[in-house]
From TrEMBL:
Region (Domain I, interacts with DnaA modulators): 1-114
Family the entry assigns: Belongs to the DnaA family.
Classification via Pfam families: Bac_DnaA, Bac_DnaA_C, DnaA_N
A GO CC term attached to the entry: cytoplasm
Comment field on protein domains: Domain I is involved in oligomerization and binding regulators, domain II is flexibile and of varying length in different bacteria, domain III forms the AAA+ region, while domain IV binds dsDNA.
Compartment(s): Cytoplasm
Function: Plays an essential role in the initiation and regulation of chromosomal replication. ATP-DnaA binds to the origin of replication (oriC) to initiate formation of the DNA replication initiation complex once per cell cycle. Binds the DnaA box (a 9 base pair repeat at the origin) and separates the double-stranded (ds)DNA. Forms a right-handed helical filament on oriC DNA; dsDNA binds to the exterior of the filament while single-stranded (ss)DNA is stabiized in the filament's interior.
Name of this protein: Chromosomal replication initiator protein DnaA
Biological process, per Gene Ontology: DNA replication initiation; regulation of DNA replication
Region feature (Domain IV, binds dsDNA): 358-477
Region (Domain III, AAA+ region): 141-357
Amino acid sequence: MAQSEVILSFQQQWDRVLGRLRTEVGEAAYRSWLKPLSLLSGDESFIRMAVPTRFMRDWVASNYQDRIQALWLEEIGTPTDVEIVVLSPSRPVPKPALVDVKDEPEVVRTQEKEAPVVKRASPLPVETVAQEQDVQQITGSLDPRFTFENFVVGKPNELAYAAAQRVADAEAVPFNPLFLYGGVGLGKTHLMHAIAHQIRKAHPEKKVIYLSAEKFMYQFVRALRTKDTMSFKEQFRSVDVLMIDDVQFIGGREATQEEFFHTFNALVDQNRQVIISADKSPSDLEGVEERMKSRLGWGLVADIHPTTYELRLGILESKAEQLDVEIPQKVVEFLAHKITSNIRELEGALNRIVAHATLVGRSVTLETTQEVLHDLLRANDRRVTIEEIQKKVAEHFNVRVSDMHSARRARAVARPRQIAMYLSKQLTSRSLPEIGRKFGGRDHTTVMHAVKKVDELKSSDLEFAEDIELLSRMLEN
Ligand SMILES: Nc1ncnc2c1ncn2[C@@H]1O[C@H](COP(=O)(O)OP(=O)(O)OP(=O)(O)O)[C@@H](O)[C@H]1O
């Protein structure tokens, strides 16, 4: 089937699925949650759809994903995984990625094989040496530990990881740019280095440049000063893959932004891969021109979410395995529970307890861990307040905030109140009596009972568990 026909038929099938969902869920829910979904890519076993916000993605995933999957199965006759990703609203749906995210259509592959880029396939030694020098002059150094193998994948980073791998493995540019964003210390740089390592290994002839936006700026200012902007432009515009880390730093710097914009456009126009990272999504970048924001959101925007307990545990276990010092499982779990800020701090904590154990010649225990990390543990006490929890839970269940303190015992208010107590225990460092006091002066045993009850319900009712997970994520963000 020709590419355009495949796109058309998937879109038509999706329209039919959407039509059926519309009848099932009603007009209001359809308009709020389903209409904004756009079909991004797909084949018989996998479809990817996009929504404009994270909240919407979580909502659609927990409330409609199973149904979408079931209807899609009915529509095309084979079981299909459905993935919902967040894409910035400014970004039009990228047409070239619409067919099959996992493999390019055969025809594209064949063409590539038949028409290799002659210049690079048979490199001239002199040119290669010159290029190497160019690359070394401008590229930042790559951390050899930051590889795909050393990257632990979990729910918060699976999209970013998959997108990074795709870019690293693809023969043709799959989406341009790849924009990775997320909070501090969550693995953006790690993924960029991993892409660079992989491409350099598979294609040593390719010119891959990785640098921070700050370094880009510094190089540009230096070129301006030495009146050598021509060769500056040349260096960048002749690369195969350009990665700029922490692009938020160019916010507010007009000249650098302008130059970056031209370089970016030139590379994208020549179909060279550009990969960008930032602490915010393109549309939220401050001090960056609108046209730039919009352009940055054209490819695939993949966010790395704050870590979950499971991911932190996975990372610690994998790092602990590489150490000479034995770390008891209890300590690993304790750290995963307590150090929630980011992965850099988590690694730092592990290194500190290992350094301490080695220095004093004692084994690692829970007590020494608490002692050595007391400052870090205090700083990591989550900052969400009980009042915020009460407000969010009341909103979610459509009850009044005053019901959180009232003596009413009707199930419709008692259950949300128990959930709010449970979340207060999970997300704050408040003691049971303190929590009880904030809920209309209740006794600590009432809070204990609420925590137990919610735990029980979570393990017996999947939908309930998902609801709690969603609330908890919304509160932690
Ligand atoms: N999923 C992961 N698996 C293993 N290690 C990870 C993972 N994510 C992050 N790390 C580690 O955490 C540390 C911080 O990651 P990184 O420097 O990539 O963060 P960042 O998002 O680029 O932060 P910043 O915003 O400060 O630039 C690194 O040592 C990295 O190896």
